[in-house]
Structure formats: structure tokens, C-alpha cells
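Exercise 7 asks you to align residues with C-alpha cells for two separate proteins.
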Amino acid sequence: MRGYDRLHSIVMLQKRRKEMGVSEEEFAVMGPIQKYTDMDDESLKLFVKEMMKKVNEKLFSGWNRKVKAVNKVEETIFEECFARFSKELGPRDTSRMSEEIVRIIVKLSS
């Protein structure tokens, strides 16, 4: 039954992702934001799409092996998250959330 439950969860997550109209990467990035905030789906979607647009401008093949490129991505994510969430979350949680997002993007790029 565990295998079925896991498969069912994956199917439901994929269905939700498609309903929201976001990429797999955008959907993955939503996780940490949902963990730290109570943002509604539409606001979350708009924020993530805009942030990822800015992040994707800095990506190229092998970016995650270049210190400067990784730093620029980290900086972009932190700036976007800080501008949007620092008053709500404070600097510590905003920083943690940003770090989680960076780890997801790096992992998906590997």
C-alpha cells in the first residue's frame, strides 16, 4: 500500500502543478515559500514566475559549477525574497527560505 500512496501523491502533485500552470522547477521552488508563508496560490505563482524569470537570465550550461554564477543566483533569489518577505518573516527566516530555494535550483540543474 505504501507504493500506491506514494504514486498517488506524485500524481496529485503533478495534477496540481498542471492546474497552476507552472513548470516543474517553479513548482519545486514554491515548496519553501509555502513552508514559511501563507501566500495564496495565485500570488505565489506570480511571485515565483517573476523571480524565476530573473534567475533564468543568469543561468547557462554549467552555471552551478562557477562560483560567481552561483553567487549571482543566490543574490537574485535573496533580493527577491527579502524585498517580498522580510517584513513578514524577518531576516533569519527569509535567509533560510532563500537558501532552500537556491539548493533546489542547484539540485535541479545538476
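Second protein for Exercise 7:
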Amino acid sequence: MVVPGILAISVAILGACTGASQGSKDSARVSPPAPAASPVPTPSAVPGSPGGLTPTAVATPRSCAAASSRDESRRFSLSLAEPVCLVIAPQAAPGATIVTAISGRAESVHQLGANETTFFVPDDLSLYGRNGCAANPDATMRLTVRNSRSEVEFEALYACSANTMPDECRSLDFVGGSVFATSASGVTCVSWKPSLNLAYSFRVETTYPRIARVFAYQAPPGATYLRLPSDAAPGLRESLERCLQRHYFDLAVYALRSSGEDLVESNAVVAECNR
């Protein structure tokens, strides 16, 4: 949101005071005349510029203030709003490489420079705008951070298409108003209330802080359920190792509108693992 600035203009008014007494005219001192004011330089004209003056370009810095922490050590903060951006803590930044890929076809590799901690996904690789989900409904974006040893430190997947499967999800028991439910067979769904305001789509985010992984899926307008794919689902019954990695996670659902986006549901889920 651009906050309009307020330009405060201060105007000083100088008043002249006269009024020496009638009986002291002869003894009154006369102040020496003030020195002549220096001429005000005239701005040089530039052909073709408005008013003949040189225009001043003001760069507006991009902000990643909406980013939230996505791992236990609070080294990686991510915002999937437009523009998609990632903030890396200084202790994790040295030698880090960020790889952005769209559906495995286009790829951008960025090596973080000295004192660089904020990264914005290139516009041509974003799922917003002319190359976004509207133009490529099956597109996926993968954002990967590797350390100096090429080990994956953080990864986020954002997919345009999602499996809403309302009938399959409706049969699940969303206990206590939770937005998350899973069945004995491993079917995992996220639920949210119908949006009162018009939304052109929804974004469902699942974050696993222990392994620094984020899975996000875009659901169509009018949807109120989304079934998580197997790689994004907790899968707590698959193995003890997986359960320990994913037994607590964060869920968030955003309504995407032309005016921006709103958080409509969120849950922090904690489960116990059978050892």
C-alpha cells in the first residue's frame, strides 16, 4: 500500500517596525542599509522537459514487510503475496544461492551478494501478472535456497492448480472449528468459510517450520475445500521420521482480490507421534 506523503511548507513572514519618538528624531540612529540579496539562480532549461526544468527521478524501494518466518531458527521469512519475496537472516545469507523455477522450464539462479538479505522473484517467473496463473493454470513455481555446500536449506512450492474435491473433504471431521482434517487412509483437507467479498481465487499455505518447507496452492473462486497432495500433507502415519519432521505446522488461507488479499483462515496444528 502506498501511503501518500505530506509535504509541509513553512512560510516565514517578516514584519518591519517603525515608530521612533518625536523628541528623539535628531538622536535616533540610522541603521546602515541591508546588503543587496544575492540573485536567485535560474534553473537551466532542458528541451522537451515539462516547464523546461530537469525532472528528478525518485526511486521507490520495494518492500518485503509482509514476509513471515517459516522455520524454527527464523532464518527464512517468505511472502507469497505480490511481489513474491524472501528475507534471509544474515547468518544464513553468506554463500547462499536462490534458484527460482517455473514448471521446470524457466529458471533463474541468484547468488546473494555481500550484505544482501532480501530477494524478489523476477517478474517473468512470478505466478502473478501476465505470466501468472490466469495464463498458465497448470504452472508451478519452486523457490529453493542452497547453502555454500549446495545443500537445500529452504524450499517453497506454489502451484496454480489444486484438487478441491469437495465431496471427499466434506466427509472428514473438522474438530472444534479447525481448518484441517485427515482420515485414517491419509486423505488430508483444508477447509475455510465462504468469502463474503468477491475473491477471484484463494491461496492455501502449509508451512513446516522444522524442515523449512512451504507448500502453497491456488484454489478457484467459490471453493471452500482443498485436498493437500501427498508431498504437502503431513503424512504423520507414514513413518516416525516423517511425523517428527511434520507433527506441527501452520495453515493459512488467503482470499485474493483485485484490491489485494485478506487472511480468511489460519491454524497452528500440533500432533503427537507414536514412538
